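Predict the holo structure. Ligand: NAP.
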Amino acid sequence: MDARDEKKAPAGQAASGENVMETQKRNVLVTGASQGLGATIAARFARGGHRVWVNCAHGVEKAGEVVAGIVRAGGEAETFPCDLTDEGAVEEAFAALEARAGGIDILVNNARLDPYLRGAADSDGAWFDRTLAVNLRGAYLATLAVFDGMKSRGWGRVVNVSSIWAQWSAPRNLIPYSVSKAGMHALTRAFAREGAPHQVTVNTVAPGLILTENAASRLGPEKLLAETASVPLGRGAAPEEIAEIIWNTVHSGFITGQTIHANGGAWMGN
Ligand SMILES: NC(=O)c1ccc[n+]([C@@H]2O[C@H](COP(=O)([O-])OP(=O)(O)OC[C@H]3O[C@@H](n4cnc5c(N)ncnc54)[C@H](OP(=O)(O)O)[C@@H]3O)[C@@H](O)[C@H]2O)c1
């Protein structure tokens, strides 16, 4: 227990302008955090003094390693295995976690089905459905599972991790991914409207290329150069940079229903 545990804000206190991210320990759930950006986000919130749950469906051992790293660094974290495509499992696991943890205060919808697992020739309805089931329906179900609790406590944050592909015209192999991410922006707007009277904010962070281990090894040095050539900043983002943007988005209680574009200046115009 630390000083933050004793400082539970009464409903509505967040509206006073106090920076509750600095004064109160929050319960944070990051979906798809067994690797890549999700693992970095989890570590960032733990470093900020909050309790973190590291979700994934398959790589539970990897999620355990993420948790072990956080704990070694002095943070608080637990794994939270739950397949977001399984509605019954989401309802059950989230309800149990809500009861045990005393409510999830911050939800980062980060999980995705890796769009590069399939090439253009393998495009079909089953892949489309699987992609939307994780990326969009999974975010919807996770948000539903925590949202009423946030509203009743008068404080909450949801961040939907989208992609530059939500607004770019996708090549064949990335169509399901692009559609799923575009859908997340509609989720953000709807939940932001519903949450606003309760001091629950909902925003989208839409990154361009992130240099996760997987992205770097998928691309290799030559393709990486080609991908970054059109980015005004001339590079991809470090996962830590995007995690910091998500941290900052959550910090503010006065930004809601917005998309924060983190794409190296791809859309600054001429
Ligand atoms: N990497 C980039 O360049 C880039 C660029 C723009 C936006 N983004 C976005 O940033 C986020 C993270 O990207 P990333 O590259 O770090 O992703 P990633 O390496 O593909 O990791 C995806 C995570 O989602 C989890 N996941 C997959 N299916 C799941 C399910 N059914 N239930 C729960 N978790 C599930 C995976 O764990 P298990 O498979 O073990 O369950 C894994 O932890 C994504 O939303 C992505 O769209 C990434």
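The longest strand covers residues 200-207. Residues 1-14 have pLDDT under 50 and may be disordered.
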